[in-house]
Amino acid sequence: MYEVYLERHASDDLRQLPKHVYDRAIQRVRGLGENPRPAGCRKLEGAISDWRLRVGDYRVIYEIDDSQKRVNVMRIKHRREAYK
């Protein structure tokens, strides 16, 4: 089991999501504790430990620290804004 932490920006992003996206995003973020590399996740190019997970048109950007069994969620943004 991995511990899942939300950075302040990710927490703010969650509060701004539409209700139907919020419910799906929370479910996927909680699932990262059991499997930090679920089907459909991708490693971001140019980053050492950053990954992305699709939630409809939104992206959960997070990093995995296997040595400490920790997942740090950095952002949850619409796909057109997620990589800026």
Instruction: Give the strand tally.
Output: 5
Which architecture per CATH? 2-Layer Sandwich
**Low-confidence sequence ranges:** none
CATH superfamily: RelE-like
Count every helix, treating DSSP H or I runs of 4 or more residues as helices. 2
* Spatial ordering of strands, largest sheet: 1-5-4-3-2
Arithmetic mean of pLDDT: 93
Instruction: Assign a percent range to the helix content.
Output: 25-40%
As for the CATH topology, it is YaeB-like fold
User: Which band does the percent of strand residues land in?
Assistant: 25-35%
Biggest sheet features: 5 strands, mixed
User: N- to C-terminal separation?
Assistant: 31 Å
The whole-angstrom Rg is: 12 Å
* Overall SS class: alpha+beta
CATH class type: Alpha Beta
The structural domain count equals 1
Shape call: globular
> Order of helices and strands, N to C?
EHHEEEE
What this model shows, in words?
The chain has a 5-stranded mixed β-sheet with strand order 1-5-4-3-2. It starts with a strand and ends in a 6-residue tail after the last strand. The radius of gyration is 12 Å and the shape is globular. With 84 residues, it is α+β, with helices and mostly antiparallel strands. The longest helix has 13 residues, at 19-31. The mean pLDDT is 93. It has helices at residues 8-16, 19-31; strands spanning 3-6, 42-43, 50-55, 58-65, 70-78. It has one domain: YaeB-like fold.
